[in-house]
């Protein structure tokens, strides 16, 4: 395996290998010296066409903890804003000897194109493409669920997960549905019909319009961010109505089973899809998701670059 | 002028004859081997009236890096066409008599095909004011087909007025049916696959709703409507219904919508990005059936050249459109002739007679008989060929059929009595 473009690239064994490796990486962060020499001399480029400080920092920290050289290439203020094409940017990075390109792009499929158009030779890691996928987010979510609900071991057989919000535009939801299905979890998507894609009935999950009916039956609920620009595009009447019908507030949180956790890929709109009471509660694991993100991304970089053999076998 | 003899050729695949061509006309259909003149071997090959394309983007003026009237004419001749309708979305837009006359003049100078300019319906394709339809109709170019192709005339009142106004000139409005609000930033057919790929969908209803509205408008004002590049099974049903009511509507389908399906988008290769988008298998089969039964009157290529950099990029940044002139006949061979949906008379009808009638081109689409204008294509249905993108005559290479092997080759093309293509190369 050379690239990580979609959660569908991961079969069960590969997904578990990444999660198990991430657990080893996490143990490292408890040590006073948090670095491994594994990727010394390798170059990882963070190629971010969209602003995403948290994902970029997470990949940067992951690469640095593995001793890789890291270059951050942001679209703003770069040659890209002067009209340079993705192809020419890719050729430049190739000429500079990038071993891996971590790409965040507004266009669905851009990482796939980067990996398969013969522009570069290194590994491509999808750090979020348009409204398509965000596989490392799904991996860190699975890792987090496994820690809380399965003692940090094995797969997620029988774990019930609710994903609530703007499914239509969510790369997090797409990658999560694919990976959770691979790991044996049962997913229910919850959204108003306007925020569900056509063809949702073909996805390997359940769909509901009623959050209150779903919450008592899940072990984890993942709240998705509602983008500001959706609020004026007729997906729902008003932000307040969305919040009252689909937002997770304290009363709704109490519908969850006692052991259930609340997740959010961030950044949160407090008061919109999640109330402050929920975001600050003991059930909320958002801060931990961030920490797990570093471990999971270390595992992905390690397995694609350092331990390529293990993952390709 | 030289007299040419197409020796031993079979008009419409029927009994072999010598077609004798003098001064631009068919002057004799002689017994094989008896025609007198410069002999061109066509033994066993099939003669059809030269193909007429209702929908060609020649890109001149404005994007001569993608195509010129000359390079597009070459591609057309090599594809067996003797007439093309040059779409109006050039830069400047063909919305005045000046621009359409310029295109028409250059087409005549090149002299490989009849270049018939299409005039814009609205000024600068902006959908707000009618273009100078009368001036274009009365110009030397004699425009009869009006289209904002690439954009839909979505304002119902403006569409009504356009349909009414062209009646004075015997014109037709060729509509690019695409409801704009339903297709904002649309990238591919809307369905389970667009949901999976995270692409903004282009729903079939956005085409069907406009065609439904327009056939009713055409009926109401008793005018002529032509539906461009029909791409969905639902559109076929609407057109079939309208024709059964006696509405004066015609329709075209592109070669690519007869053969390619949306699953190709999974490659994220922008060579498959086109507008309207590639649809489902069910749509492809419905379009073939509609072309066979005449619900769809004509094949039209929507030949849309784009420079390399507009396709060698990520999907969202790529331009929409595909080359079509040199592969159109082969696609019809594979999808319509070989499965038995069209015989040779049928191919002549859908690729020549009907498009000439819709475009109002009297000298084109004439039967292969004495007295007809000598616009003739000679094809070899037995031959097979493999498409090499860089070897196409177009200045662009954005064919979705690169490396694909097809049945059917164009051997000779005669335009106005002169050979433009002999033995598969420009004469």
UniProtKB/TrEMBL annotation, chain A:
Q: Which reaction does it catalyse?
A: carbamoyl phosphate + L-aspartate = N-carbamoyl-L-aspartate + phosphate + H(+)
Root EC class: transferase
Q: Which family does it belong to?
A: Belongs to the aspartate/ornithine carbamoyltransferase superfamily. ATCase family.
Name recorded for this polypeptide: aspartate carbamoyltransferase
Functional summary from the UniProt entry:
Catalyzes the condensation of carbamoyl phosphate and aspartate to form carbamoyl aspartate and inorganic phosphate, the committed step in the de novo pyrimidine nucleotide biosynthesis pathway.
Q: Name one GO molecular function term.
A: aspartate carbamoyltransferase activity
Q: What is the lineage of its organism?
A: unclassified sequences, metagenomes, ecological metagenomes
PANTHER family given in the database record: ASPARTATE CARBAMOYLTRANSFERASE, ORNITHINE CARBAMOYLTRANSFERASE, MITOCHONDRIAL
- Which positions are tagged coiled coil? none
The EC designation for this entry is 2.1.3.2
Q: Name one GO biological process term.
A: 'de novo' pyrimidine nucleobase biosynthetic process
Pfam families in the record: OTCace, OTCace_N
Q: Which UniProt keywords apply?
A: Pyrimidine biosynthesis, Transferase
Pathway assignment: Pyrimidine metabolism; UMP biosynthesis via de novo pathway; (S)-dihydroorotate from bicarbonate: step 2/3
Q: Which residues form the Aspartate/ornithine carbamoyltransferase carbamoyl-P binding domain?
A: 2-146
- The organism is freshwater metagenome
**Annotated Aspartate/ornithine carbamoyltransferase Asp/Orn-binding domain residues:** 157-304
GO CC list: cytosol
Automatic annotation (TrEMBL), chain B:
The prosthetic group or cofactor this protein requires is: Zn(2+)
Which keywords does this Swiss-Prot/TrEMBL entry list?
Hydrolase, Metal-binding, Pyrimidine biosynthesis
Query: What are the recorded GO MF terms, alphabetically?
Result: allantoinase activity; dihydroorotase activity; metal ion binding
Q: Where does the record place the Dihydroorotase catalytic domain?
A: 46-233
One Gene Ontology term of the biological-process aspect is:
purine nucleobase catabolic process
PROSITE patterns tied to this protein:
DIHYDROOROTASE_2
Q: What is the recorded name of this protein? A: Unannotated protein
């Amino acid at each position: 395996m050379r690239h990580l473009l979609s959660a569908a690239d991961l079969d069960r064994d590969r997904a578990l290998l990444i999660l198990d490796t991430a657990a080893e990486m996490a143990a490292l962060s408890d040590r006073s010296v948090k670095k491994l020499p594994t990727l010394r001399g390798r170059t990882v480029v963070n190629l971010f066409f969209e602003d995403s400080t948290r994902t970029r920092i997470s990949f940067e920290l992951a690469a640095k903890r593995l001793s890789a050289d890291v270059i951050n290439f942001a679209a703003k203020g770069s040659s890209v804003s002067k009209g340079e094409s993705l192809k020419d940017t890719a050729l430049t990075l190739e000429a500079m000897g990038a071993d891996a390109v971590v790409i965040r792009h507004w266009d669905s499929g851009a990482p796939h194109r980067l990996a398969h158009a013969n522009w570069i030779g290194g590994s491509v890691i999808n750090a979020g493409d348009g409204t398509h996928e965000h596989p490392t987010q799904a991996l860190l979510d699975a890792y987090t669920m496994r820690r809380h609900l399965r003692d940090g071991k094995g797969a997620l057989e029988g774990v019930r997960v609710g994903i609530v919000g703007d499914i239509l535009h969510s790369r997090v939801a797409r990658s999560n549905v694919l990976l959770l299905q691979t790991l044996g979890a049962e997913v229910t998507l919850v959204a108003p019909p306007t925020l569900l894609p056509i063809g949702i009935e073909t996805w390997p999950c359940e769909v509901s319009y009623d959050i209150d009916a779903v919450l008592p039956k899940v072990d984890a609920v993942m709240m998705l961010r509602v983008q500001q620009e959706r609020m004026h595009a007729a997906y729902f009447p008003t932000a307040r109505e969305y919040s009252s019908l689909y937002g997770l507030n304290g009363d709704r949180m109490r519908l969850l089973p006692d052991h259930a956790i609340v997740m959010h890929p961030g950044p949160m709109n407090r008061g919109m899809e999640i109330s402050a009471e929920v975001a600050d509660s003991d059930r909320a694991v958002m801060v931990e998701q961030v920490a797990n993100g570093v471990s999971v991304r270390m595992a992905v970089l390690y397995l694609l670059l350092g331990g390529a053999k293990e993952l390709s076998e | 002028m030289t007299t040419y003899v197409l020796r031993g050729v079979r008009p419409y695949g029927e009994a072999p004859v010598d077609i004798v061509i003098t001064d631009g006309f068919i002057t004799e259909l002689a017994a094989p081997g008896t025609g007198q003149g410069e002999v061109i071997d066509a033994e066993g090959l099939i003669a059809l009236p030269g193909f007429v394309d209702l929908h060609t983007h020649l890109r001149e003026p404005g994007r001569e890096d993608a195509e010129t009237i000359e390079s597009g004419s070459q591609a057309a001749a090599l594809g067996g066409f003797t007439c093309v309708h040059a779409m109006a979305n050039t830069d400047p837009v063909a919305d005045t008599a000046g621009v359409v006359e310029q295109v028409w003049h250059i087409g005549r100078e090149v002299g490989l095909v009849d270049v018939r300019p299409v005039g814009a319906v609205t000024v600068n394709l902006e959908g707000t004011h009618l273009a100078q339809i009368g001036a274009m109709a009365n110009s030397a170019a004699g425009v009869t087909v009006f289209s904002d192709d690439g954009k839909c005339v979505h304002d119902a009142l403006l569409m009504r007025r356009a349909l009414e106004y062209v009646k004075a000139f015997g014109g037709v409005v060729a509509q690019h049916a695409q409801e704009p609000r339903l297709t904002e930033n649309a990238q591919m057919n809307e369905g389970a696959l667009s949901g999976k790929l995270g692409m903004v969908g282009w729903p079939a209803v956005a085409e069907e709703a406009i065609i439904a509205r327009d056939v009713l408008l055409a009926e109401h004002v008793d005018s002529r409507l032509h539906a461009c590049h029909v791409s969905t099974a639902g559109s076929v049903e609407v057109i079939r219904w309208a024709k059964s009511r006696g509405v004066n509507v015609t329709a075209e389908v592109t070669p690519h919508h007869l053969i390619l399906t949306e699953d190709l988008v999974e490659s994220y290769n922008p060579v498959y990005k086109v507008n309207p988008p590639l649809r489902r298998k069910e749509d492809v089969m419905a379009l073939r059936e509609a072309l066979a039964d005449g619900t769809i009157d004509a094949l039209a290529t929507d030949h849309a050249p784009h420079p390399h950099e507009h396709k060698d990029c990520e999907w969202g940044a790529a331009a929409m459109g595909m080359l079509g002139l040199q592969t159109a006949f082969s696609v019809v061979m594979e999808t319509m002739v070989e499965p038995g949906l069209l015989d040779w008379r049928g191919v002549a009808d859908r690729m020549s007679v009907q498009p000439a009638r819709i475009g109002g081109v009297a000298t084109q689409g004439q039967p292969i008989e004495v007295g007809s204008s000598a616009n003739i294509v000679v094809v070899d249905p037995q031959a097979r060929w493999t498409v090499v993108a860089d070897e196409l005559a177009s200045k662009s290479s954005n064919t979705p059929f690169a490396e694909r092997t097809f049945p059917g080759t164009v051997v000779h093309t005669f335009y106005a009595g002169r050979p433009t293509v002999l033995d598969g190369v420009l004469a």
